[in-house]
Amino acid sequence: MKIAVTGKGGVGKTTLSSTLSCIFAKHYKVFAIDADPDMNLASSLGIHDKITPISKMNDLIRDRTGAEPGSSFGEVFKINPKISDLPEALSIDYGPNGNLKLLVMGTVDKGGDGCICPASVLLKAILRHMILKKDELIILDMEAGIEHLGRKTAESVNMMIVVVEPGLKSLETAQRIKKLAGDIGVLNIKAVINKVSSSYEEEFVQEKLEEIGIETLGSIPRDESVIKSDMEGKSLNHYKESVALKSVQKIAKKILESDID
Ligand SMILES: Nc1ncnc2c1ncn2[C@@H]1O[C@H](COP(=O)(O)OP(=O)(O)O)[C@@H](O)[C@H]1O
Ligand SMILES: [Mg+2]
How confident is the model at residue 254 (pLDDT cuts 50, 70, 90)? Predict the structure, then answer.
């Protein structure tokens, strides 16, 4: 299963991605991919070492795509670079039994029409051609801009989760994402409502999501332990009493139960 997490900046994409990754890693092999230029999935997992993102691995990019790093328009690319060994070779082991692997893409330029950057070519190739075994899954932490995924890549994503919070701004972003997702062929789009402080807030967002036409997977309360985990530099999964963690566990269960091929 390939799951992409998207939404407006600051809504909780990285928190959700890292927490889900740790939960799934108990039973599955998880590839957590940081595709947000902000690059803080590692930190959210409790990894604070300096990591070289794939977009800065110039030799690798040159080798696999045939293009000079940093070049874009007009370059000749290998559109389908060999990647099968990359997820294993480049990822950082984390979690119980090395079940969780982290890949940091770095800045993946979106560019204009017809402009593709090598890192973006690699990310797309990884998403498209990574053959997942039955007990493996990918969690992709990405920004709100999803259009650079392109149709073929988007089609390989089984579920796109849009994170929203109480407020119109993140809902407007969700609406834009839904439109983009439709344009590039992502069919299964679901919402997670984060940072909820009251039933009024939850109902407010829920109603708006229904208007937009996005089904909700679940909601996560605003929770001090999320802030504490960020201050202490540990993953939320260490805070067993966290109400946010419990909500994410429910969401994880729902994702696994959802019938997607
Ligand atoms: N449920 C929550 N309760 C309290 N704070 C939260 C919650 N979810 C996220 N945050 C905080 O909001 C900020 C943004 O979260 P983050 O996951 O980095 O968002 P994004 O990846 O969408 O930019 C972080 O400081 C995080 O600790
Ligand atoms: Mg983030």
Answer: very high
Our count of domains for the chain comes to 1
Distance between first and last Cα of the chain: 8
CA pair distance 153, 124, nearest whole angstrom = 6
Ligand 1: atom nearest CA of 141 is 21
Q: Domain containing 77 — which CATH number?
A: 3.40.50.300
**Which is the closest atom of ligand 1 to the Cα of 40?**
18
Per-residue pLDDT of 122-133, as tens digits, reads 778 888 777 677
Domain that holds residue 135: 2-257
Calculate the alpha carbon distances from 207 to 65, 88, 174 in Å: 46, 42, 13
Q: Where are the beta strands (DSSP E) in the chain?
A: 2-7, 29-34, 92-94, 100-104, 136-141, 159-164, 189-196, 215-221
Q: pLDDT, tens digit, for every residue of 6-23?
A: 999 999 999 999 999 999
For residue 173 and ligand 1, the question of a CB distance below 6 A is answered with no
98: tokens are 């090395």
Q: What is the model's pTM?
A: 0.92
